[in-house]
C-alpha cells in the first residue's frame, strides 16, 4: 500500500489541482482531505456564483438576471467569477477546483488564465475512477435517516432493512439517488467532462486513481500522484 505523504505537506506546493470523476466517485470527500493536508481552499463555482449574487457584485447582478430568467449562466460569466476568485491571497499555494472546468472550453480558458501569471503553476488533473456498476450501487443503494445517518443497502446495510440502527427511524432514498437521475448525470458527464479528462491526459498533467479503495488509501494515492506530477510533469 502507498503510504500517505501528508507529513510533507507543509513544504509541498500543490498548485492548482483539478479533481475529476463521474458522479459518486468521492471527489468531495477527497477535496476535503486535500484541503486539510495542504491548507489550500476548495474553489466551487456554485459557491462563487451564490456569493456574487448574495453580495450584489456586478457579476452577481448579471448572473441573477439569467438565473431569474431560468437561463444557464454563460461560460464567459463563470470564467470572470473564477478569475476574480483566483486573485484572492488564499490561492497562493494552490487550490482545488470543484465543478470547474466542466467543459473543454472552460479548460482551455483556465490554462490560458494560469499561464498568464508566471508565478502560478499549471493545473494538474487527477481523475478518480470507479466501475459503473459500483457507482450505481453507491448512488442507488444510499439510504438516509432523518438525523442524517447514511447507509448503503449493498455495502453498509442497516441491521433491519429500512430502519436506522441507532434511533429506529425510517430510512429514505433521496429522489436524486434514483437510477434514472444517475443515468442522466452520467450522460452529462460523458458528454461534457470526459473531453476535459482527455485534454489533460494529452498534456501529461494527468493521473488516474482507483477510487474503489478505502477513503484513506485513495487520499494517499492522490497525494503521491500530486508529488509525481509536480516533480516530473512530463513523465
TrEMBL record:
Q: What are the binding positions for AMP in this chain?
A: 45, 50, 71-73, 99-102, 106, 174, 185
| Pathway(s) per entry | Purine metabolism; AMP biosynthesis via salvage pathway; AMP from ADP: step 1/1
A GO molecular function assigned to this protein is: ATP binding
Q: Taking every annotated instance into account, which residue ranges of this chain make up the domain Adenylate kinase active site lid?
A: 144-176
Stretches for region NMP: 44-73
Signal peptide feature range: none
Extract the PROSITE patterns matched here.
ADENYLATE_KINASE
Q: Please state what class of enzyme this protein is.
A: transferase
Give the protein family.
Belongs to the adenylate kinase family.
> Domain comment?
Consists of three domains, a large central CORE domain and two small peripheral domains, NMPbind and LID, which undergo movements during catalysis. The LID domain closes over the site of phosphoryl transfer upon ATP binding. Assembling and dissambling the active center during each catalytic cycle provides an effective means to prevent ATP hydrolysis.
Q: How does it assemble?
A: Monomer.
UniProt protein name? Adenylate kinase
- Lineage of the native species? Bacteria, Pseudomonadati, Acidobacteriota, Terriglobia, Terriglobales
Gene from which the chain derives: adk
